[in-house]
């Protein structure tokens, strides 16, 4: 996996912590009980907590965690070190280290672990696609397959992982890119004809949005593409193949045939985009076949990515090394960490 | 998988749609463009949309989808049919059917598919654990491994899948149960001694919360359990084994040894709870071994569940059967659907 | 495998031995040398030779072997026993036993083994398809994938194995059936339009030949089928799906969709035939899926069948049991054999 | 696989097309119907047809196809390009391209595809053996396991694949070599003694045929070989081991033992030939073991070779590029093709 | 595995403990140190030690352990319970329980575990052969593949496992049977001829020893067997096939051929014994093939059996339950144990 | 496998042949009969016998065989060549060649094959561990899992294979090393406390024996190790981890944690030894993990090693090359053999 770190906007200002997270509603209940006990006992030691992932991957979620930490840690008594958002992280490598009074962090351990676990899982899956694609752009298309409360976070993580754009407005906003998409089958079904649908699109949608027709709704993809190319001429930027599994899905041979027949019809400028069940293996297969593809839309390969479970361990209390059974006491040396707060 | 449908509170009132969902920020961008085109063209047909999953499983997310639909569909012109929340759904079985003017549903197709996909994935994984456990209670413990924006939804789905309780306040609230938990390793590390920690717990936490000690922090689990049992006597409800992988994890033999040595120390009443990497296979292994277990905490088996991707298809427009290539036109017959709106 | 023995014409009269076989040009050279030695030595004992296959299967080639044996064995001194053409034969079961002066059979051992080996291989493969198809008719379509010198024999063996018909004139003649076929892609390409092609077919081909259109040449199969059904109406007997692998091949879902959309277009009477890479496994998959299919065309599954190697052993010479090392001396008992000559 | 092209006689003159092929009896019936339709419609365009195989291999059948094409294509209006007989062909590589009026080729597409499919399959299997044998000669012995109508073609293809000789008279004649063979077990069984059999062979068979004794009929192979070597002395060219599977088959250790014991008996000049279930893997095993072998007889590895299915596609009609769905229109560029007619 | 317990002589009197075992030379050194410490500290508690195996199998070694225990445990203060020699034992089932002053058993834990581990491993492997053989007698032939210091113990264990006899004098003596064997290849090589060797055997060996000829030394096994049968007539009890791997080993087909040809030579009374690489799988294969076999000689399948590692745990000290971490304290209930001392 | 040959004492004087071996009680019975026949016939030729193994490995048993051969072969008429004890031997390589009157060796073929088979198997397994350990010392701990009659031989072979020491007195004596061990769980259970046990050890055992405490009997291994280190200080040489499988076994993480926490407790000098189910794979895993280990105890990986079956063949009788079927006659050339007698 390439150790590519994309240019990032200063995203942390965009991640506004949800009220339910701030009040601890998403925390494990036992942290509330722990707070209650420690407060009653008058204990609030300064601790060092370290977060590390189970597996290697592309780290994501640091920016969002920082947006929370700046709100909850006491400014006078806090230190936060982290690896860079979008950088590579090894299995078990400490990625985030927090030094603070325990009571200021207790209710957020659950939330921070969760942000890192989900986001790192998505970003890593996206990167696998990007690495496989050898420069062909990839767009994150999976919003429909994850809960809407985090589809924006998933799209943001995909872009951190190297995708060029994504389909949700929220994800694009968080990542500082323009959202991307073509048209749904629904539009064509309602308009009743693919050519009329792309013509309506062309009529009503601002010129800067590329005209990309979805060509598998009613007719043979190649026949439909050539028909559209004849009508739309140079206004047509490309076509998207999304042939359903029931009809064999999109194959390298279909792409090659479409390219050859578009060229024969003097439509060399029409690009070909491919979506539907795209995985790194299928991307490699397309590339190896020699089919010329101008972009991939990836959905469930990213949305079904397993969270990369992060664990939080206390390694120091009031300056003294400590650890539970099974873990090594004391601050873990990691010169790659940078101090953020 | 048992076709068990748990008693449910009237949850749909609890699922308040997020503003970002209502304004369509979590929608694919092309639905906004579709809205724009259709509005400009003056088209808004009455359509029938059907949602179906890729794989079989325990349906979840219907209640949340209903909370959204009651807000966005025009009361005068809507029909909604669905399978019951928590019931079994076949692969490709229509689970939700909406009849409405297209413009009232267009921006929510993405969100509804996502709710059903994620929630059905989690509920199904939970049910696999519940089925394996043959009556031993299971608590959802995985909040720390998913993004906090949906940890409550994950916990809710786990309970729909049959878990007895969960660790987040939000999940418990949505599902109408009491949240459940013991104590974190952090409390014991900070207090510095497991016995003192459980004593502090006992002193400050309301009596109705069961006293369950975490026993693998500093000492051999069996030695620690017996020590605690001697001090806490009948106030001790149970102990939780969460031995880390680095120390071999929790094994059936450890549970048997702990039970035998607790009994030898006259602590027959002390229950044994087990957590850490629990899966249906490991549950079956524990049960087959004859080890006596009083409860399991399950985390990442549920949180890493693949979303069960739901697809939305238009099957009828203005009363006429239609379908894109690869799909069957017309309303799909499913006598199991019940009309909800 | 069903032990079905189809009704057979008296085929043996149709198998006219080739001159090259009669003069021994297809024999191993060492049999010519053996003939020369034995003649010079004045030896010509009466022998019993038995033929058995390596594997179990559907016996085929007996009729053709008989056509040769009646020509070459001396009428006054010959006995021939065999299992029935098209019946089941066990691995190593004696299927043909010849008693004759050695010099009358010496030059034909190679040819007879070869007839049985190839034909039994093909018939067995055909039977596997027939068994899988549970009554749906199968036509042998593989002539283009075997040498034309034996494509008729292959088609004959397929029908012995249970196929309803075959595509070659010679095979059909040997098996006593009517050859079967639709139209090649070449006709449609030359005529330039599928509808015109089926109309030309309808105009020039005798009425008793069913009108079955090939629908994957230029357009989406479903669109083309409906167009043809509208034009040909009740004259159309069926359509054949032969979608190439490059376009996903024929799938159960495609058949279901075509059936549903034909029915919606009031073309319930139009049958659906399927070809292209059909194997017993794919036949079972189609049947299990519930797709309604009216016939399969099978090609390379039969043509690529391994010959079921037959071995010929001398078991008796001048009435005395004998055998080479590794074989059992004396006539092998097999009450299933029937005397034919 | 080595890209070896053996010296070839001008075989095409030897392949006399069968009358049944010339009249189209081995053609698919639908080509007869196509002829009828086109003739009635008065259509007979000039077309380009290309033939390509499914898999890579050693091309064979071109010479036989040429013998047919020179007879059926109009001399004034034909072009034929092909790759060389016996050369390597890639998967899907165009191997034969015909430009002619469609009606002159229509009835022969089936036959030509079949010749190429079967022959290329056999030649490729033979080449795998030859490559494995690293210079040790291989003789094609499989006539008894294929239908006698094509055993000569199979033997011809084996020699095109690199075999030194073959056992059928017809195959040897087509390939321009001397047929090869030793003696059958039958001769020894009838004579009743291996020594007497080789002596009779020596007495009656021309001196130029090598004396090679088959030594596994009655006695231990080593004992028999030494006995024969003592009697035949320098007249003995070699022995053939054909030990049946029932007695363990021929093993590298048996060959080594025989060589050592022949040498100890001063019969260094006696060569050792091996047959019975020989495959490339077993050839490699023999060679790796260090056993000294002077020749292999290969049978069913070649006869059971899967045909390498050839497909024929129209790519141009009256000078215009065309193709059915799934194929690329226009003449396929292949600079390796040479014009033959 | 059948739960067969063979009739046993009172073997324990035959197992005379070796002096090196009695003085503790085969004990782990740390037991000597333990003895020294406890003696110096004046500690010698009464303990209960339990022995259990890793895997299930046929228990063997109890008799030999008893012979040691009666010598070393104080008669006044000892209890020994055990499962029966030759009976089935479950994985982890307590098989031997000793109650005695610790110092009387300390130096023998290593030896007793070792006796049980090795012997149970061998007996179990023997039983697998016996079970596979369905009543055909099996003789243990493996002495040459284990160290001579324990070849007798191995043979004894094989008979406990169900073998009919064994080849070593010592093993037969321990098990109370007559040793069994035929003749070595060496005898035949030295005498120079198999017939002369069996004649010399017949001349000099007492009549009650069966005449069984080894027939694979010089000639084809079948030829040799028939030759011997003709010379020895009714004095010949049987022949042994021991064909080496280099010549294909003994196969079911060889046995069938030998039986058929012996019968044809009127030697129905000559039995057939088989040896060389015999395993339960090969025994099953022989039986399934229908070959008639009168006895198997089994060697390395038994000698290569993995020891079934026995573990010894202290479960009680001075009447109080105890156990190390990982084990259950107190005497393990096993009603199948019988008191022996 | 390294071709390392360890320094060896003149062990052959230590291997005193057992009386039962000398009288032939461990011989196959048929050798006694052979002796009887040959004596009666007055035959006693001078023969050459060669021994070779089935598989490659580390040769062991030569010294013990020599101790027997010097006793039984006539001094005036014997030659013995062998490969060196502890050297590498190829599969089927002649490792021992004996030339002597047949009657002097006949009764010992079984015993010598057995010594070589068992010992070579053990030595080879030990070498696999030594090679994996890359210089970390290995001690043979498996006496408890093999019969006490050969536990010394097994330990001797382990040291020939490269182990540093072994746990039995007899093995150490044969190999000329000091036996090695720590303390058994039994000592700690009886003393009732690990600290008291190591203190008693320290009090009563000579100073030159290293103090190594077994730390998994009662408490958490790390806690116990630190407690002992505090009490024993510099007298403590190391601790042994032998955590049972029921408690997860010894893992690399446990070793790392123990090392870190010992160092934190200023006990850098305390070494860590590991035992329990150690195999070459697990050794490699420990080393790859970076855990610092000071020694491994290996038991059942060595004791369960399959004997490497040696075969003895006569290759020459009275100076003439001979061999049975399947073997090569005459003395086998092997320049690596050295003459020992």
Question: Can you walk through the features of this model?
Answer:
With 341 residues, the first copy, chain A, is α/β, with parallel strands linked by helices. Chain A has two domains: 11-121 and 307-339, nicotinate phosphoribosyltransferase (Alpha-Beta Barrel), CATH 3.20.140; 124-303, Aldolase class I (TIM Barrel). In chain A, 39% of the residues lie in helices and 16% in strands. Chain A has helices spanning 19-22, 29-41, 62-72, 102-105, 109-133, 148-160, 169-175, 185-191, 194-204, 221-232, 252-264, 280-289, 300-303, and strands at 46-53, 57-58, 79-82, 88-89, 96-101, 138-140, 165-166, 212-214, 238-241, 271-275, 295-298, 310-317, 320-321, 338-339. In chain A, the strands form three sheets. Chain A has a six-stranded antiparallel sheet with strand order 13-12-1-5-3-14. Chain A has a six-stranded parallel sheet with strand order 7-6-11-10-9-8. In chain A, strands 2-4 form a two-stranded antiparallel sheet. In chain A, helix 8 (185-191) packs across helix 9. Mean pLDDT of chain A is 95; it is low at 1-10.
